[in-house]
Amino acid sequence: MTSDFAPADDYGPLLAALPSQPDTVVYAPRSLFNTGPVEGDQRLNMFHPAEGGPPSGPMRQGPVRAERLAAARRCFAAPPGFDEALAALGSGIVVLTGEPGTGRETHALNLLAHGSEGPVIVQVDGAVNLLRWTPRPRGVHGYLVMEPPDLSQLRAWDLSRLEAPLLEAGARLVIVAAHAPELAALLEDRLGVPVLRHLPPSPGKVFAAHLSCGCSTPEAPEEWLRTLTPGEYAALLPEGLPPRQAAQSAEAVLRLSVAGGFSADEVVRALAGAEGRAVVARAQGDAALLAHLISICVYGGLPRGVVAERAAELLRLTEVVGRQGPATSGSGHEPGDAAPQRSWTETLRLLGAHGVQRGRQAETDTVAFCRPGVADTVWAVLCREHGDLIPLLHTWLASTGTEADRVERAGRAAASMAVATGGRSLDCLRDLALAPSPSASEVAAWCLGVAAGDPASVRSASDLLEEWSTETEGALRNAVAHACVPHRGGLPAGRALDLTQRLMETPTGEPEDIAVLTDVRAVLVEHFAVGDLGARAAVLTRMRDWTESDGVPGLLTALAFPDMASTDLAWWSDRIPGDAVMTDCAVALTGHALDESSAYGAMRDALLAWCCGSDGTEQPDNRAPEALIAGLVAARQPGFLRWLLSVERGPDTLPGKSLAAEALTEWRGNTPVPNAD
Fold it and tell me: How large is the C-alpha radius of gyration of the chain?
């Protein structure tokens, strides 16, 4: 026969978990017992004498699991001030304040376990009434209390009564609370114990600690880290990454890269994908949290006030649509349900986001996901699982406001939905562009410009641009013109020129069309200004062809070219006269602009600028203006003759005076201009 009794050494954790000063404790495995009066159907009633003071309720506490404690100690990255906290804990009791999700509990566990080989740590439920709680007399090294709700109600004598029992038991107590500057000062004044500020360790320190724990040899982490470029390391551990996510980065590197051979970029994408799926799942059924998630996806990087304002507007729209038909709300949130009340800090933590301080006012802090790639995954999951939200989101994006950065982010968000749906969400873009908002067509333009640069949506975006370029609605035509702006990404110069030509060739005669054509002119100039040699050649040769037109293309060409001629004079000097095609374009476009009365003044000044050096004085050995003027003399256009006569009548210090005099002599006498070579 074998005994069922556990060894005496196994009672330690059990005793530690029991409430202090229990009224009745029975340890009787496989035994039957009965106590108190038994009445009727074996109901047990136990009567205790009444005691003074408030009822204490159940004392909920238990030992921290050995595995959890071992992991917290093995991969511990000491946060700033850890040694000072250890010294303060010598008094027996400390309060540790910090933001949730920043490693407060790990910090506290390591404080309590420091210096012990096999510590027994007991975690006490934060709801326990500390006025009636006392430590066990033996067998416990430390107690951890997480966020008691009534901490500000305690007084110095409430904790001082615990100091002697803790000292006799050889135990220490750490109370963890959420940080608030005013609360920390209040607690230190009222409680008479050290109140310490927990600051999270750097992401790199946490990452290195977890990476070392998971590698069989200490050299392996260092060898792997040496293979990373600074950009790859920054993507893996972005600034402000919480300790939990830094630890996840290390675990992913060990699993996917060190063991699986994945590249750093693939690991970053995997981490962002996992985080994105997790935050969407967390927001399911919580309309307020989902609205904030989408708002951060769109306006991440902008001030907190913008993100919060737009989230509130989205929530309002969601509730309006929900009242019209709950099936269209897509959030699992029934209209009229009370939204959970949570702090801004808790909202960001749940969504894997953080705030970056930009000033003294909290509203100016910017908000973004800790991992930048999370937004792409969120859009993919939302469009796949909540497709009914897409029309609502386009309505919401149309009212983004007039600030340029908000408009750009709204357009890029619409483009992200287009990419996630293979272009199908662009069916909602017409209503967005025609919405009664001053920036709606600009949002649509950003969407089309970005979507046209992604293989998943390029076909649908290109078809829509083609269709809208011949529309009569000013907002749609304006969207096409703005989508052609080069910094919006997707449209190469040739494609943008095709669309702008269609806009010019199909004028509507409406007053708003003047604004569209003005935008077309600006687009042409910008494509030349930022383009490479190929893009500039495409713009100039297309515009040379337009000089043959007496309509809108010819007029806009004359108005646009003076700005191009004034852009990057060094580039023009390098191309003329060596590049015959560019020289021919310059001659044709200059003569065309001088012939157009509305463009003459700007072209006259640009041509004078060509005759100047970098110091503003005439350069007699400059071959570019000589070649240009020689070509213009040969073309014999009236606008150029007007320019020659105006220079002749000008002061002797006027740039190009000598060149103009020689050209005018050749024009009048039909004698060749001397060759500069």
Answer: 37
Q: How far is CA 525 from CA 112, 391, 485, 597, in A?
A: 68, 36, 10, 19
Considering only CA atoms, which of 462, 458, 377, 452 is closest in space to residue 420? 377
| More confident: 52 or 470 | 470
Q: Closest Cα partner for 99 from 235, 234, 237, 244?
A: 244
Alpha helices (H) in 33-180, listed in sequence order: 66-74, 82-89, 104-113, 156-169
Task: Report the distance separating Cα 484 and Cα 466, nearest Å.
Answer: 12
Whether the bond between 577 and the residue before it is cis, its omega within 30 degrees of 0, is yes
Task: Tell me the pLDDT band of 476, cut-offs 50, 70 and 90.
Answer: very high
Q: What separation, in Å, do the N-terminal and C-terminal C-alpha atoms of the chain show? A: 118
Tokens at residue 378, please?
């969120």
Integer angstrom CA distances of residue 147 from 95, 140, 152, 195: 10, 21, 11, 14
- Give the tens place of pLDDT for each residue, 198-247: 999 999 899 988 888 887 777 777 777 888 888 888 989 988 889 999 99
Please report the pLDDT score of residue 289 as a whole number. 96
Residue type at 473 in one-letter notation: E
pLDDT-based confidence at residue 53 (cuts at 50, 70, 90): very low
Looking at residue 325, its pLDDT comes to 55
Long-range contacts of the stretch 594-598 (C-beta < 8 A, 24+): 594/637, 594/639, 594/640, 594/642, 594/643, 595/558, 595/637, 595/638, 595/639, 596/555, 596/558, 596/559, 596/639, 598/555, 598/558, 598/559
DSSP string, 220-289: HHHHHHHT--HHHHHHHS-TT--HHHHHHHHHHIIIIIITT---HHHHHHHHHHHHHHHHHHHHTT-HHH
Residue 325: CB atoms within 10 A of its CB come to 10
Cα gap 601→562, rounded to integer Å: 9
Higher-confidence residue of 412 and 186: namely 412
